[in-house]
Design brief:
The chain is built from 33 helices and 20 strands. It is of the alpha/beta class and 785 residues long. Helix 4 packs antiparallel against helix 9, helix 10 packs antiparallel against helix 11 and helix 19 runs antiparallel to helix 20. The protein is elongated and about 170 Å long. It starts with a helix and ends with a helix.
């Protein structure tokens, strides 16, 4: 870049017409000062031009004295002298009138000077030369050639005047030599004149180039000076210099001001002492100052060195750079460098760094900081042959708080959680928030495995205590997954993955506990991944099918309907338990298409059954939070021809855990179609009675765990079953007891007041053909009765 610029600057393109004064170009070049330089250069040799004309006139008079009257020669010489003096006066006057700038007219006016001189000096060749002999003509040519050369030198800066003068006189001499000496001499005159004109133009162009360069350099120097003055006035940069003994010499006022001293005090002091400030006596130096001492001692150049400096009551940060200096004998004479106060820049950088690495809600380190800390911990563990650990923490039941009480309460709860976690940390641990309700702990030294596990249990216990927020008592526990490196992962990514798998096992166990990573967890995760991939293709490959479990009247034991239960048989993996693939489908967001497929096929099958047997279909919260689900139900009923009253949708309490009312609106629209609604797994989850009065349920299903507990005489289970039955009766709802497997359980739930029963005692989930047969027999029996 610089070489190219220099080349263009040394040889700028000059417009020839502008150089002659015939044209004013429209480029960015300022020709005013350049034209002034041309006129000034022409005025410098004005007296030389007068002398050359006077001497030339005398020589011409002597040369032509034998062939022309003396009075004529005297008259011509006088005219030549007067014209040359007039031209000189004009040149000298121009120098004072246009010292800095000149117009296009000023340059064009010099044409008159050249024309007058050319006409005056062309008189001798034309008047006398053509009548003289060859010797006289040659002598006259020599004299006039000298005059032309002198004029070309004196007037070269003004090419318009010089070229007109040389052109007129050259033509006159060429004509004389053609007449007296022949074409060869005339050609020589023409060639000589042409060379003089070329030389004159070249010299004029060189003058313009030099002047243009001077103008550009002047502008650049002025700009640099302005910038330096601006920097001096507003910048925090300063210069510093030391001698061979590292003492400050020639301290600049800004340097002295930056360190809180005056120039007389700074000069002669050790640079290290000046920068150390109050810490000099105590010897408690910053690491940057120690680095500076090493550079000075080793006489090494350096740059970008950051130093904390105590100036008065405040700490400032300096960034300095320097090079060693040597004299002409290559003897070290000290350092010279620059410095800058970068306190504000460092504060801004620290703020940006904190924003990039700390969570704005809790103030804890964020995912980036935690990942960096884990990578450092693993590096140190590998270096020293020790171990580090990583904990993944996930809050239990946090989503329910967020959905029911709103995000502001959820955010405040996260703040309280972070406070409890921060109190538990020591210098050996770093706690951070990964996002949402996920936290993580980096344990730098995990050599004591028991201590790491105690910390995990302490975290579970601390986060399980209730929280008091805005008159709400909130209960949320925590699940923790622990992985130890390098045993459970040799990279940060692998260790995080292992801790995540351990956390998943804790969540799968019901939460409120911690688990350490075990190799079989990876096997389970891989199995889960394979199952998820297979499940995504199960619908396409027709691997899913529906079984139908009978639901009977508790008193008459007559069939009232069936519950549709989806089953999956993989060609290679065999029968996959619903307990395994249903949660997987929910996590992988596959439950909606699977649920729609079950709904459509169940309605199509139920429409073929005789009588009024109902079909119950489970619906996931994800389906109900989609407003388009109403259209799915409508389409399934329309395509199958099944009456809406024979379709019963089973929902769980988790549908009502979100704060919005989208699911409730969808249920209301479905109920308006005439479809019945059943509440499944009542009492095992959310357990809020408010939605029972707002939603038109037809049936409450009592979970199998309560039926089993009641049959074994568990008092709490018996009390819950009685309470649910009483609640349903008061609201005009039926109750269905699930999981009835024996006659004793049947009699018990019948005595407790349950209206319907479902379980192995009355039938396992049946293939479609068997269920169709059961429905037909029940219809015949009812018709016979």
């Amino acid at each position: 870049m610089s070489n190219s610029s220099s080349s263009q600057f040394a040889k700028p393109r000059i417009d020839a017409r502008a150089l002659l004064g015939l044209h004013d170009p429209a480029d960015t070049t300022d020709w005013g000062p350049i034209r002034a330089a041309q006129l000034h250069a022409g005025s410098q040799l004005a007296l030389f031009l007068v002398a050359a004309n006077v001497i030339g006139a005398a020589l011409v008079t002597l040369t032509l004295a034998h062939c022309a009257p003396l009075w004529a020669l005297a008259l011509w010489g006088t005219v030549a002298a007067v014209v040359s003096v007039a031209v000189a006066v004009r040149r000298l006057a121009t120098r004072h009138r246009a010292a800095y700038t000149a117009s296009l007219h000023d340059v064009r006016a010099t044409l008159l000077d050249g024309l007058l001189l050319g006409l005056v000096w062309s008189i001798p060749p034309f008047a006398c030369g053509i009548r003289a002999d060859t010797t006289t003509a040659l002598n006259l040519w020599v004299v006039l050639s000298l005059l032309m050369t002198a004029s070309a030198v004196a007037m070269a800066a003004l090419p318009l005047a010089t070229l007109s003068f040389l052109g007129i006189l050259g033509v006159a001499i060429a004509a004389m030599m053609l007449w007296t000496g022949g074409p060869v001499l005339a050609s020589a005159v023409v060639l000589f004149t042409a060379l003089l004109m070329i030389g004159c133009f070249t010299r004029a162009k060189a003058l313009v180039v030099v002047r243009a360069s001077e103008i550009a350099l002047g502008e650049r120097d002025e700009t640099v000076s302005l910038l330096l003055r601006e920097a001096e006035e507003h910048s925090s940069d300063w210069l510093w210099e030391t001698d061979a003994q590292r003492r400050v010499v020639r301290a600049s006022p800004r340097f002295a001001e930056s360190v809180g001293l005056d120039t007389t005090t700074v000069n002669g002091k050790s640079l290290l002492e000046v920068l150390a400030g109050p810490t000099w006596e105590a010897g408690n130096f910053a690491s940057g100052l120690r680095d500076l001492a090493e550079y000075l001692k080793g006489r090494e150049p350096f740059r970008g060195l950051l130093l904390p400096v105590q100036v008065g009551e405040s700490e400032r940060w300096f960034e300095i750079a320097a090079n060693p200096r040597y004299d002409e004998r290559d003897i070290f004479i000290g350092f010279r460098g620059v410095g800058s106060d970068v306190t504000e820049q460092r504060a801004s950088a620290d703020k940006i760094n904190r924003m990039a690495r700390f969570d704005t809600l809790t103030g804890l380190p964020n995912r980036l900081y935690i990942n960096e800390s884990l990578a450092h911990a693993m590096t140190d563990a590998a270096k020293w042959g020790s171990r580090c650990a990583f904990m993944m923490i996930d809050l239990d039941r946090f989503k329910a708080v967020n959905d029911t009480l709103g995000h502001p309460i959820g955010d405040r709860l996260l703040g309280r959680v972070s406070e409890r976690l921060a109190v538990l940390m020591t210098e050996n641990e770093i706690i951070g928030r990964l996002g949402g309700d996920e936290f993580a702990v980096v344990v730098r030294d995990a050599s004591d495995t028991a201590r790491v596990e105690r910390l995990a249990q302490t975290i579970v216990d601390a986060l399980s205590r209730p929280y008091e927020l805005d008159q709400h008592t909130l209960y949320t526990g925590a699940s923790v997954g622990v992985a130890t490196g390098p045993r459970d992962g040799r990279t940060a990514e692998m260790l995080i993955r292992s801790a995540d798998l351990a956390l998943y096992r804790s969540k799968d166990a019901g939460g409120g506990t911690y688990h350490c990573y075990e190799p079989q967890l990876h096997i389970a995760a891989e199995e889960r991944r394979v199952l998820e991939q297979a499940l995504r293709l199960a619908l396409q490959k027709d691997e899913l099918h529906i079984c139908y479990q009978p639901v009977v009247d508790a008193g008459s034991e007559q069939l009232t309907g069936f519950e549709a239960l989806v089953r999956w048989t993989h060609p290679e993996l065999g029968v996959i338990s619903p307990a395994k693939f249903i949660p997987l489908a929910e996590d992988a967001r596959l439950i909606a298409p699977i649920g729609e497929w079950v709904l459509r096929n169940a309605c199509m099958e139920a429409a073929r059954w005789p009588g009024q047997a109902r079909i119950a279909v489970n619906v996931s919260p994800e389906q109900l939070h989609n407003p388009g689900f109403v259209a799915v139900v409508t389409s399934a009923l329309s395509n199958s021809g099944l009456p809406a009253g024979r379709l019963e949708l089973e929902v769980t309490e988790s549908v009502f855990m979100r704060d919005d009312t989208a699911a409730v609106k969808v249920l209301e629209r479905i109920l308006d179609l005439g479809v019945r609604l059943s509440l499944d797994d009542f009492g095992t989850g959310y357990s809020s009675l408010g939605y029972l009065s707002r939603t038109r349920f037809s049936t409450i299903k009592i979970d199998r765990s309560f039926v089993t507990g009641a049959s074994k005489g568990v008092r709490e289970a018996l009390a819950i079953v009685r309470a649910v039955v009483a609640l349903a009766q008061s609201l005009g709802m039926a109750t269905t007891a699930e999981g009835v497997e024996t006659e004793e359980e049947h009699r018990m739930v019948q005595n407790l007041g349950c209206t319907k029963v479902q379980g192995y005692y009355f039938g396992r989930p049946l293939p479609v053909e068997d269920a169709r047969g059961v429905a037909q027999r029940a219809a015949r029996d009812r018709a016979a009765a």
